[in-house]
Amino acid sequence: MWVRDRLDGLWRDEDFADWYPRDGRPASRPPSWPPVCVLQFLLGLSDRAGTAEAVRCRIDFKYAPAVELDDPGFHHSVLADFRERLTEDGRADRLLDLTLVRLKEAGLVITAAAADHERQHTGGRDCCHRRERTTQRTDSTHVLAAVRDDRTRVVRADIRDPEGVRTHPDTLELIDFDRPVAVILSAILHHVNDEEDPAGIVRYWRDHVPSGSHFFVSHFRSGDNPETAEAERVLQQTFGRGRWRTDDEIASLLDGLELLDPGIVPAPLWRPDTAPNPWNTSGAERELSVWERLIVAGLARKA
């Protein structure tokens, strides 16, 4: 989304010209599929009921691939076809290389040499940067964007080690923990198993930030239906870990904090926009779909 905010798109139709035969039915807008596949992977969605439906109805799934709001969507089979073509003839590596080139051209990513030059002109302050080709393949999945100001740091750490995150030199350089802060645990705690004490992670931060600090949590929500069970299975199969939790279990992660209205609710219902909804032409309250109920969010405050 950060890249999409700055560019209309990273890829063009001609970038995929050799992926498809020249005769037959034209391919269905292949530049849209990389960002859609990324969102699908992050949210653990199926092709048919999850991703294809999301592109038809969700504004973020339209915004990321730069499709029109009234776009009717696509048949779910194009996703499997795209993924299969991506694995052939080194296309995944070539697509990633092309992505990095265009990010560099747009000034959103810098090389090691440019980062060294920037440090020399910023009093030695460090910044995040992409290494050149010699080490690119080892960490290119992260593609850390260059920090262009002094308000952002990227710390490579383990969420299960909050002490290491809080006391990291980059963290302490940027954040004054004597003042209220925002602790954002967005779509992360469902990757932490019960035996790894996700509540303990929140409790650590609660005990080490001052009064007036706010905590935001979003979390996959377990439900008594086949779609939820299948989505959770895909998540665990993909990452080899994680657990979805009930609303009460998610709320318990914020014990010791004041849970603010409207509480733990599906993300579309968390302080929804008051502007007219372009998806609701009937004027009636719209029933949330199964996949819209999969993620809940909540905000709490330390008294």
Fold and architecture overview:
By secondary structure, the chain is of the alpha+beta class. It has two domains: 2-104; 155-301, Vaccinia Virus protein VP39 (Rossmann fold, 3-Layer(aba) Sandwich). The chain has 13 helices and five strands. It has helices at 2-6, 33-43, 47-57, 59-63, 77-86, 91-105, 112-120, 133-139, 162-166, 169-174, 198-208, 226-239, 247-252, and strands at residues 182-186, 214-220, 258-259, 265-266, 295-301. Strands 1, 2, 3, 4 and 5 form a five-stranded mixed beta sheet that branches. α11 (198-208) links the parallel β1 (182-186) and β2. The longest helix is centred in the N-terminal third of the chain and has 15 residues, at 91-105. The protein starts with a helix and ends with a strand. Residues 122-148 and 277-284 have low confidence and may be disordered.
